Amino acid sequence: MALPKRIIKETERLMAEPVKGISAVPHEDNLRYFDVTIDGPGQSPYEGGVFKLELFLPDDYPMTPPKIRFLTKIYHPNIDRLGRICLDVLKSNWSPALQIRTILLSIQALLGAPNPDDPLANDVAQKWKEDEKGAIETARQWTEQYAKP
Amino acid sequence: MDSTHFETRPRKKRRFFAEDSSPVVQSIQRYSSPPAASPQSPPKEVESPVSIPDDGETGQDGDENDEFAGLLQAVVGRVSREVLDALKLRSGGDAQRAINMYFDRSWKTAAEPTAPLRQPSLQASLTTNMNRHGSDMSNAPMLSKPSTPLNPILKSMPPKRYIGSFGAIGWATKSGTGMLKHEEHVGIERTKLREPAGKRRIINNKKQDVVVRFTNNRGEEVGRLENDFAAWISSLMDQKVCSFEGTCVYVPDRVRTGDTIYLQLRCYMLRSAFDKRKFVKPDNNRSVSLFAEKESQDEKDLRLRQVALVKLFEAINLQPTRANENAEKYKRQGLLQAAESAENNEQKSKARNGATGEAGSSPASESEEGEELEQDQLDSLYKKAQSFDFNTPEMTPADTFAMDLRKYQKQALYWMVGKEKDESLKHKEESMHPLWEEYEWPTKDANNDPVPVVDDQKMFYVNPYSGELSVEFPRQEQNCLGGILADEMGLGKTIEMLSLIHTHRNEPARDHTSHTVHTLPRLPKHSVDVEKAPYTTLVVAPMSLLAQWASEAEKASKEGTLKVMVYYGSEKSVNLQRLCCEANGVNAPNVIITSYGTILSEFNQVSAMDGNRGSHGGLFSVDYFRIILDEAHYIKNRQSKTAKACYELMATHRWVLTGTPIVNRLEDLFSLVRFLKVEPWSNFSFWKTFITVPFESKDFLRALDVVQTVLEPLVLRRTKDMKTPEGEALVPLPPRTIEVEKIELSQDERDVYEHIYLRAKRVFNANADAGTLLKSYTTIFAQILRLRQSCCHPVLTRHQGIVADEEDAALASDLAKGLADDMDLGSLIERFTTDGEQDVNRFGAHVLKQIQDEEHAECPICSEEPMVDQAVTGCWHSACKECLLNYINHQRDKGITPNCFNCREPINARDIFEVIRHDHISPTDNDNIRSDNPSSGTQQTPRVSLRRIGITGSAKTQALLTHLKHLRRTSPTTKSVIFSQFTSFLDLIEPALARDHIPFLRFDGSMSQKARAAVLEEFRSSNKPYVLLLSLRAGGVGLNLTCAQRVFMMDPWWSFAVEAQAIDRVHRMGQEEEVKVVRFVVRGSIEEKMLRIQERKMFIADFGSASSLGMMSDEEKRIQRIEDIKELLS
């Protein structure tokens, strides 16, 4: 299937005007499949880490949101052990006006502002609520352990 | 020919112009004038001085007063008294029999043993005479020498004349010995001798009485002929065509009932047979209203005679000496077959009509009787009629004619003028009527004995198609001073006709320089008082073409050389009789243009006035110089009142113009020929016998050949793709491209379509299962119609009047009750009926500005730049219209409330607005929008306006608008034509055009003549880039729309030919630029399937000659159509 104009344009733009701390590179054999890295935001337990994600644009993109998953282990109340992300714009709040770039920025923002009230990983969220300091520490350790380039 | 010999003139004429002839001849005529009366009746013959022996001996001793002798000698010549006595004895005093006996010599072999002495010598003298006459093919001088040249004796045909003999088989009805001897003379009787006349049966009794008896010398009935013979011999005898005499060839000594008896029959043609013709040919030109369509008794007799004659000639082995070369191809067998099948048909229809029907088909069933022609048959027919000679001389039109004619048009003019002027016809070589055959009278009988001959009548003529006989040379009469101009559409029939009007005309007497004044003798005024109008040509055309005729007539004439009058509506107040009469020649209109409708209504008025044409003062009160019927297939149905009215119009010259002289039945042509008064074809019985019957009995080649002989002298037809011998096109037309544009329905439209589709399919399947497909054909067809409409615009399916079947009534009531099943359709359609354009002023200026600014922005959804058909949500966020709608549908499919892609406000498809840019409108024609379209809020024409999606409704109208707008931008002056078969669809297109400020005009069947003319004139003359909306039906014929270069076909028709005809309104002669045609077809819909069926049909017509030559019956056609529908619904 020919690649829709929108995907081509987005890809081109991601290449031409990269966002700081974010990269997305399509696979050569499948232009709908992207290797993504997101730098952990400053002033967060993830600072200094480089997180790998995979991103896939389904056939009916942009009617449906892209599918995104962390490949790098991360300790985050909205990200489960499999790397799945709980983020409204990836689900009910998706809009075709959103793009890969904006989604990735959202994810980056999510790293800076975890939301334990809407958890995906229950144990992490629990910990986050009960012992935020300890949780942040664990997150930092995980970043140290898994997300160092 | 040698008109000095009055005897070569048609006998018929002599009857009426007796003063031309000598008294003697008169008496001959008196003699033959009661042809129906039996020529055998002696008292009549004895009065006649005609019957004088043909050896020239006149004197007669003492027997002058003997009726028997006089009669006898009148025929056989002088005989001795002994012979006379013997004959009288043998024949029982019956002169008729005696004459027969004398000639076949049976009186000698019969009971009387002594042969008269003088007999042999007389026989010998007769023989010499006969031989001489037989061998000498020029008029035997020997015969005429003894008498004066005008001696009528030799010119007259005897009451009967030997034609041939043959063997026949009979069977005895009695037993006994010595009833009949070998060589004994046998009388052949039609009815039992001495039977009371009351027991006679009438021919048209249900069971035909064909019994033919034969009697012995004593006049006693011996037996009957075998039915094989009796069947036709009886008709010949009943119709007084022939009489028969027999000789017994073999008979058993002792006869038992049922025994076979062999006879030799001698057949004589009766003189009355040759008179019959006058009575068979009904003179119905003057009794149109009573024109009998049924097969009359006459017609039936004719047919019986036809069969009988063919069988007789077969039996006596008589071959024509001359026959039409076409006719030769038709085997006699074929003739018989045709006639017999007519008989069978009649039997069948009788059976169907029960006891009531005589030859009984009602007029209604008659009108459907003619079978339709298959396309390839029509083609081959036309091909024959089209053998146009490119070397036909040209004629330059009169110098009052203001247009330049092309070469082929000048040739047409030559041909037409030739047809109109009798001179060309007078000098024409006399040729035998193509349907007749010439036979030579035998000069010797079966025993090689001579038979008497009649001077100047060596030949007789038979029409094997009708069984008519004649001793006169049947010349091919061409008394129609006009014809059929059947050039294909676009070749300029109108112009050709106008050149004829200019070139062949009478000039009012005041013009002394004119030498073309025809001295038209004033007819004696008869009761109806029809006035001659020697300067006037009447043009009858469909209403829609009146204005076109008038303007073309103006254009084609130099200033003031042609007075044209449109006789229609209010103009009808004039008295045509006064206006057009010869005395008023200077002021008389040269051309009166009127409509078929006017003809019909005046016809009704005149008939209400008991046919008093004169006092009516209208169209029927004058006898025109020329009548032209344009689009003459309007009168193709000879039963229609319009056709009958047209037949009644009087004129010297008659022309019909039509691109399709035969629409689908051969009968179509009949009506034209009838109007033209082409004898004898204008007689329906004649036509039926020669064309309809053979055609229906599948003898296509013969029927078509005959049709061709009818057409050939009458028709001039050229087609657009004819090439001159140099290989040039007759009319070089600019190229034409046809493009099929596939339309995607919007989701909502698709929903409606699917809904109707499923319903149609349900009905179809239910009927298919129940085996009632053929019965419920119309219901299914209505469903298909609705399906096609839903492809155009969903609203159409709810249009009143279109949907009228029961199911819709049920649906309506369901809707009224708010029932669920069809709720969805109701609400679906509602989406298309929401009214109104958003009031632009309601939005803040900044919103508009923002929207305008976004014009070149990228679509946030598909990244298209600029957006394709920018649209905005209710919250003013822009995207491509399609993206926006897709997204809304996507969300709806997932069961979530659609919201804005941008701000996530809940939105809804009805709150999407299209951004309309009016950049295709040049500032000048802002005021040109049709005033009767009160589209509010467009007074100051904003550059951008917002329009709620769904108002312009369907995908098709959208596509159309896209094309038109594009056209406006790229080619701002090009005019376009839009065809749809649904006027209600045109109604929906109109407001859409108005909204987009595209100037348009409308032309359909509901408009008055004035309005039509105004529309056409405006379309033609204005330099605005008009769009003309036409209904396929009203605009399919005649119109000339060459000022347009674009054609949009909104919906496909069942056969492409109809669409092609519509396209040819634009792509016809006069078109100077390339024509582009766009046919809109909804993808994945019934329309696509219709295209496939169209293609298949074209294929069949082109290549399937073998299969389609075997015509399909009605039943088969229906089945074929059901197959089509099956395909449509698959």
User: Mean of residue pLDDT of chain A?
Assistant: 88
| Poorly predicted segments of chain B | 1-65, 110-154, 193-206, 276-295, 326-331, 348-369, 511-527, 799-829, 831-842, 922-942, 1100-1112
* Strand element count of chain B: 29
* Main sheet makeup of chain B: 7 strands, parallel
Into which percent range does the helicity of residues of chain A fall?
Answer: 25-40%
Q: Mean pLDDT score of chain B, rounded?
A: 70
CATH architectural category of the domain at 407-424 and 479-506 and 531-716 in chain B: 3-Layer(aba) Sandwich
CATH topology of the domain at 407-424 and 479-506 and 531-716 in chain B: Rossmann fold
Number of helices of chain A: 4
Distance between the termini of chain A: 36 Å
Strand content of chain A: 15-25%
Radius of gyration of chain B equals: 39 Å
Q: Give helix % range of chain B.
A: 40-55%
Which strand order spans the largest sheet of chain B, edge to edge or round the barrel?
A: 15-16-14-17-18-13-19
The CATH superfamily of chain A is identified as Ubiquitin Conjugating Enzyme
Considering residues with a beta carbon less than 8 A from a beta carbon on another chain, report the largest interface and each chain's count: A-B, 14 and 15 residues
Could you say which overall geometry of chain B the principal axes of the C-alpha atoms support? elongated
Task: Characterize the structure shown.
Chain A: Residues 2-148 form the UBC core domain. The complex is a heterodimer of chains A (149) and B (1130). Helices cover 33% and strands 15% of the residues of chain A. Chain A is of the alpha+beta class and 149 residues long. Chain A has a single domain (5-147), classed as Ubiquitin Conjugating Enzyme. A four-stranded antiparallel β-sheet of chain A has the order 1-2-3-4. The longest helix of chain A is centred in the last third of the chain and has 15 residues, at 132-146. Chain A starts with a helix and ends with a helix. Helices cover 40% and strands 14% of the residues of chain B. Among the domains of chain B are: 407-424 and 479-506 and 531-716, Rossmann fold; 822-919 and 942-950, Zinc/RING finger domain, C3HC4 (zinc finger) (Herpes Virus-1, 2-Layer Sandwich), CATH 3.30.40. Chain B is elongated, with a radius of gyration of 39 Å. The N terminus of chain B is likely disordered. Chain B has 1130 residues and is an alpha/beta fold. Chain B has a seven-stranded parallel β-sheet. The chains are: A alpha+beta (149), B alpha/beta (1130). Chains A and B meet through α1 of A and α34 of B.
